[in-house]
């Protein structure tokens, strides 16, 4: 039984959840405690009590802890990657890559703990000095989704600790294993009791407790738009700080002058890898007339070579969908897209078993052509290996289609034209723009986030994370 970490103690929950391997649903990874609201309350109380001392801890103390956590994650990349692939279903190389990213994030924020910065200015009044400093916000509630079970927790936990905040962390129900492993590392890192608390449990119970408790000063949330709206409403009602990272319907524009191989590789990678379960996945391919048919044909040829199988098996390109409910959603959207006039050019087959006969949530990657911008497949996030193609007349039309979405997380363009690449970088209404690269797959030391319905509040990651995890103080001194 994997327990919750509250005030430095491992505590049983009020209930138990079973962590199942989506590549082989007979494989029980482990049992995990599920906290109730009373236990979340204990965690909030512990974090509140720990805050005064931790917020005044030295930069050296925070550096040492974060650096050591990063080192342990990196040293255990193979084992933690195996656990991640087993519980979430991304392939082993992808999972190990995510673990490495988490380790690097802790190392990055270890360094940030040493350089919080600040400004010293003369006042406009004689004899007065002004100092601008950053202070910890307080107790932060961190709520994460299932699709990056260790990287997203890392990119919230590491900056929160680096700048002196205390944490109550609620991971997604589907992937408690990576969250628990990370918490176990943190529990041995030298953090004082109560600074970091793990509270696994239901969103409607533990999550809502974090949203509504006045001792939680700020909530960082990554997940769906529907839940994000609840987070926003609850936080606004009590004037708590919050930040939301939500869904995407990310376009990739392919222009006539694109290098076909580069375009296909970028589209296949960001459309289908990690089973399409990435908020930055390219789910809309917007392709100009002159290359459209060649591009679709090359996509289908490439897709035929992709092996859908057990996430941890060597040679697997695409693992299973995360669970039955997400698989059902993916299949529903395949039906909706075809009912609205889209053509299934390739894939979309439900495989009940993998190559070894194990039962799992397998779906072959699907490409739907002949779609138009108003179709639901082009407006709503599917969050699976399902990609649509929209035909565009020219660059200007493609840009307009790319921006015609309620989302604005990432956008890509495949082109050999400097003029169009430069124009697209400036005029794409997305937080992150990629030229001749997949829309998914970003660096760990630079800001991450979007616009419009994809994000709300300050950016995560890199030095920009300070905007959320610190509050600015302006102090005046008469000399
Ligand atoms: P989700 O919204 O269902 O759940 C996210 C988290 O919120 C989970 O921990 C869940 O338990 C919790 N939660 C659920 N109801 C709650 C409530 N009422 N109050 C408080 N917490 C609650 O999302 P998911 O299915 O886990 O993740 C998939 C979504 O995440 C997709 O939409 C994807 O695009 C998005 N995502 C976004 C980013 C990004 O950075 N923009 C990154 C990864 C995933």
UniProtKB/TrEMBL annotation:
Family per record: Belongs to the aldehyde dehydrogenase family.
One of the record's GO molecular function terms: oxidoreductase activity, acting on the aldehyde or oxo group of donors, NAD or NADP as acceptor
Keyword Transport: no
Keywords: Oxidoreductase
Aldehyde dehydrogenase domain residues: 17-474
Protein name: Aldehyde dehydrogenase family protein
PROSITE patterns hit by this protein: ALDEHYDE_DEHYDR_CYS, ALDEHYDE_DEHYDR_GLU
Organism of derivation: Roseateles puraquae
Coiled coil location: none
Domain of life (superkingdom): Bacteria
InterPro entries xrefs: Ald_DH/histidinol_DH, Ald_DH_C, Ald_DH_CS_CYS, Ald_DH_CS_GLU, Ald_DH_N, Aldehyde_DH_dom
Pfam families (UniProt xref): Aldedh (PF00171)
Residues at the catalytic site: 245
């Amino acid at each position: 039984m994997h327990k919750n970490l509250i005030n430095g103690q491992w505590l049983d929950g009020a209930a138990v959840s079973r962590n199942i391997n989506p590549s082989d649903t007979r494989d029980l990874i482990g049992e995990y405690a599920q906290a109730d609201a009373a236990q979340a309350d204990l965690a909030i109380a512990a974090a509140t009590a720990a805050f005064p001392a931790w917020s005044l801890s030295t930069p050296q103390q925070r550096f040492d802890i974060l650096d050591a956590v990063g080192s342990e994650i990196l040293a255990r990349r193979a084992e933690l990657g195996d656990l991640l692939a087993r519980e979430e279903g991304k392939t082993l190389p992808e999972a190990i890559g995510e673990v490495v990213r988490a380790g690097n994030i802790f190392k990055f924020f270890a360094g940030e703990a040493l350089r919080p910065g600040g400004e010293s200015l003369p006042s406009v009044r004689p004899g007065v000095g002004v100092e601008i400093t950053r202070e910890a916000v307080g107790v932060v509630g961190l709520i994460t989704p299932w699709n990056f079970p260790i990287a997203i927790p890392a990119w919230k936990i590491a900056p929160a600790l680096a700048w002196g905040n205390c944490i109550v962390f609620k991971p997604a129900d589907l992937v408690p294993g990576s969250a628990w492993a990370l918490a176990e590392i943190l529990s041995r890192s030298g953090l004082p009791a109560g600074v970091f608390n793990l509270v696994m449990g239901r969103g409607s119970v533990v999550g809502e407790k974090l949203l509504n408790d006045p001792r939680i000063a700020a909530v960082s949330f990554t997940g769906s738009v529907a839940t994000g709206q609840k987070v926003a409403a609850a936080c606004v009602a009590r004037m708590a700080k919050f930040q939301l990272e939500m869904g995407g319907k990310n376009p990739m524009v392919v222009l006539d002058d694109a290098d076909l191989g580069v375009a296909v590789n970028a589209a296949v990678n960001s459309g289908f890898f990690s089973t399409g379960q990435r908020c930055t996945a390219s789910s809309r391919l917007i392709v100009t007339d002159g290359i459209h048919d060649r591009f679709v044909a090359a996509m289908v040829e490439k897709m035929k070579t992709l092996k859908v199988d057990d996430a941890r098996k060597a040679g697997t390109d695409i693992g299973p969908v995360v669970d039955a409910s997400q698989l059902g959603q993916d299949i529903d959207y395949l039906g909706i897209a075809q009912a609205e006039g889209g053509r299934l050019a390739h894939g979309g087959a439900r495989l009940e078993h993998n190559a070894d006969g194990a039962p799992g949530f397998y779906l072959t990657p699907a490409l739907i052509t002949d779609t138009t911008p108003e179709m639901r497949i082009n407006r709503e996030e599917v969050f699976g290996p399902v990609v649509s193609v929209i035909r565009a007349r020219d660059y200007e039309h493609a840009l307009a289609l790319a921006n015609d979405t309620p989302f604005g997380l990432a956008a890509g363009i495949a082109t050999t034209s400097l003029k169009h690449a430069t124009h697209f970088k400036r005029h794409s209404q997305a937080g992150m723009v990629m030229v001749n690269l997949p829309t998914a797959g970003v660096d760990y030391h630079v800001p991450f986030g979007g616009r419009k319905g994809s994000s709300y509040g300050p950016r995560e990651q890199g030095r920009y994370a300070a905007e959320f995890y610190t509050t600015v103080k302006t102090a005046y001194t008469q000399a």
